[in-house]
């Protein structure tokens, strides 16, 4: 039986990286607010933490960056130079990787729609490792491989149907992702595996699963691996002795957002022994892949905005900033409690501070916790949201005709660079169809 007790965690929840107050104000004066600020050194540090967490695995280990979390070219180029892999789910993401100097041979492509046209496109662009999650998807990939002459290496995405304690779950009844091991329809891992093994146009590569985002109890990985190992050994008895070259355990490594959460070391310490045992039982040193989007990028970035108004209302003191959920959407979607601080800080006033955005929407109220430092909030001061690097920049919306903020980066040499310019209002107008108006 798998021990499902929550394991101790080693993260301190300390916010990183560190910038000086003077840097925040200097950049605000130069580029205006709000703005994002990315730290290149932190991006590289996160890669090292994941690799170190699985250092005792007796086989090759690769980190794969889930590009959906942040596809800013400066971030992609940083990870390209680290030599890691990339988890993609759209041909447009592949274009970004190639434009940033990455290789299609370093990609794991996991489509959601799995259409024939999509597979033909990405195979022609050089991708040869593809994850399928339906019978139709496998059939389309096989047809695309035959048409293009690219012998794709295929991984089967399974849904281990284990309970996951996570912010977003991808297992159990969440059937959008992956295949059941067994069942009565053709959409099972067994049926899809059989089709791949009997198709000369493709080669079977291995298995993939994704349990969720912000996984706080590593025991679910143990249970999923236990089920996968059992499935492989059972399938060999009916389908022949196939090799497993790659096992991808997906993402889920949590970013702390100021809390204590499991680290890569915690997860690796929990499952590396089990993975090494799987290597022995399956008779091959497979490559282990761990994906990450949020963990690799969240802590690298801060969002800096300015206090533009303060209002007392009953027992509350409303502090208005010139940002909103249009630049930090997870504050509204997932009610993320980002570590927030006023710069420079001060003594907490008698009123309860409510931090609100500039949007005309009652949802535009930023969740805060006891970890936030909102003392000293006054008009003109800056407010810094930490761990804002994942799913914020890529989800910017032009609500209230708001142009996208600039993205700045402190590079490894300590220089501050503009890596995305502030969008011009005229450019937004034209993007929204201004050039389609009758003359």
Describe the structure.
The chain is of the alpha/beta class. It folds into two domains: 40-293, TIM Barrel, CATH 3.20.20; 299-435, Lyase, Ornithine Decarboxylase, Chain A, domain 1, CATH 2.40.37.10. 30% of the residues lie in helices and 21% in strands. The chain is built from twelve helices and 18 strands. The strands form three sheets. Strands 1, 12, 13, 14, 15, 16, 17 and 18 form an eight-stranded mixed beta sheet that branches. It has an eight-stranded parallel barrel with strand order 2-3-4-5-6-8-10-11, surrounded by four helices. The model is unreliable at 1-15 (pLDDT under 50).
Key words describing this protein structure:
Lyase, Ornithine Decarboxylase, Chain A, domain 1; eight-stranded parallel β-barrel; eight-stranded mixed β-sheet; TIM Barrel; single chain; 12 helices; 2 domains; disordered N terminus; alpha/beta; 439 residues
What's a concise summary of this model?
The strands form 3 sheets. Strands 1, 12, 13, 14, 15, 16, 17 and 18 form an 8-stranded mixed beta sheet that branches. Strands 2-3-4-5-6-8-10-11 form an 8-stranded parallel beta barrel, surrounded by 4 helices. A two-stranded antiparallel ribbon has the order 7-9. The chain has 12 helices and 18 strands.
> What series of H and E elements makes up the topology?
HEHEHEHEHEHEEHEEHEHEHEEHEEEEEH
| Tally of discrete structural domains | 2
Amino-to-carboxy terminus distance: 72 Å
CATH superfamily of the largest domain: Alanine racemase
